[in-house]
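Hypothesis: this fold can be encoded by more than one sequence.
Test: take the structure tokens below, design a sequence, compare later.
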């Protein structure tokens, strides 16, 4: 469907698909190791700091959603220049909007590259020890770029279809927790100082990066007035997933051992022994399913980046695939930039901190300007670049 459909036709993304986009973007490769960082800062108290971190993520997405609801069915490349500029000098608004787009796009491209490299490390460690990292990276990147270059409605349906698959590992992890977990490992609670608790909450909050894709996709929503409910329910689902993974890891390993594990979620599944178990190595099945999670994160971030580039520079829509192909060398270079696994975790931490800081800062600045200038509404349709 043409996203700039005339009156009477709908935008391509349903409200449920918007919900799916948030869940599948935020829940990515980080779920394989995030509980280690939480345990290092909060210990057993990580089982409640992850909940408060999730509430901060809700606040972040709420700010972005309320901002974008002021400009229903408008692409960010349309309303942002109008908000920052004037009717007489539209070019000024575009120039002023560029730093905001650049700051957001910087997260999308760096997070895509690091997610690809991190999952490559998981595959090399657990399944393909003899496969060159470059082969794994290029395979993931080329495939993700191919899908990300498709129209927005295809991306939305892709996420809607794959969302249920994401829940399967969570059910398995909950079963491992019920069978192997020791409740004493989760005690005592509330042993942190105020400073330690604050740090633990922030570290938990940084695990929820990725909500900024709404800058690219919310302009395509059929019912943007219902976006708050869809987005808040998406974060609630992510909080539940993260809480189960974190609590299960603490219960099975204890906070002290958890701090020393490189891939706690894989080790968690390896520890499972169920009577009459058909599959001997459950972690292989987990990785196979988690390929979907990483792949959807990659696709969504790259699709958002490609869409912003196409709309901002008025490039022909059919050129999406060429933009995607042009991004592959940049993504590959960023993916191989970390020298080793510790360096990779360091850059994941930096990008995890950068994402919410940029989202909240950009969201608050633009929302404040919109309120001060009383800007809202306008052209109800998303623009389409020339197709010929």
């Amino acid at each position: 469907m043409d996203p700039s459909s005339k009156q009477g036709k709908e935008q391509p993304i349903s409200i449920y698909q918007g919900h799916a986009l948030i869940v599948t973007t935020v829940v990515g490769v980080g779920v394989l190791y995030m509980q280690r960082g939480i345990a290092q800062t909060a210990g057993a108290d990580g089982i409640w700091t992850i909940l408060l971190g999730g509430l901060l993520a809700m606040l972040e997405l709420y700010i972005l959603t309320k901002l974008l609801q002021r400009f229903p069915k408008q692409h960010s490349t349309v309303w942002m220049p109008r908000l920052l500029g004037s009717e007489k000098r539209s070019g000024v608004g575009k120039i002023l909007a560029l730093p905001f787009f650049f700051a957001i796009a910087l997260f999308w491209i760096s997070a895509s590259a690091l997610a690809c490299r991190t999952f490559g490390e998981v595959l090399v460690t657990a399944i393909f020890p003899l496969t060159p990292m470059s082969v794994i990276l290029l395979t993931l990147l080329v495939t993700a770029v191919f899908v990300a270059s498709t129209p927005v409605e295809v991306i939305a349906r892709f996420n809607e279809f794959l969302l249920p698959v994401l829940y399967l590992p969570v059910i398995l992890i909950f079963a491992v927790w019920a069978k192997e977990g020791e409740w004493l490992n989760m005690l005592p609670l509330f042993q942190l100082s105020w400073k330690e608790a604050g740090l633990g909450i922030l570290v938990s909050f940084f695990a929820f990066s990725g909500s900024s894709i709404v800058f690219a996709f919310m302009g395509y929503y059929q019912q943007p007035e219902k976006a708050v409910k869809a987005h808040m329910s998406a974060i609630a689902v992510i909080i539940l997933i993260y809480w189960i993974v974190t609590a299960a890891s603490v219960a099975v390993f204890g906070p002290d051992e958890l701090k020393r594990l490189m891939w706690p979620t894989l080790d968690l599944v390896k520890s499972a022994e169920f009577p009459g178990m058909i599959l001997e190595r459950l972690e292989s099945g987990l990785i196979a399913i988690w390929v979907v999670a990483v792949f959807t994160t990659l696709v969504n971030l790259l699709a958002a980046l490609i869409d912003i580039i196409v709309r901002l520079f008025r490039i022909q829509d059919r050129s999406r695939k060429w933009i995607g192909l042009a991004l592959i060398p940049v993504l590959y270079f960023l993916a191989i930039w970390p020298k080793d696994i510790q360096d990779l975790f360091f850059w994941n931490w930096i990008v995890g901190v950068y994402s919410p800081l940029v989202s909240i800062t950009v969201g608050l600045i633009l929302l404040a300007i919109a309120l001060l200038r009383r800007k809202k509404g306008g052209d109800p349709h998303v623009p389409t670049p020339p197709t010929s």
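Residues 15-370 form a domain with the Amino acid/polyamine transporter I fold (CATH 1.20.1740.10). The chain is about 70% helix and 0% strand.
Hypothesis status: open.
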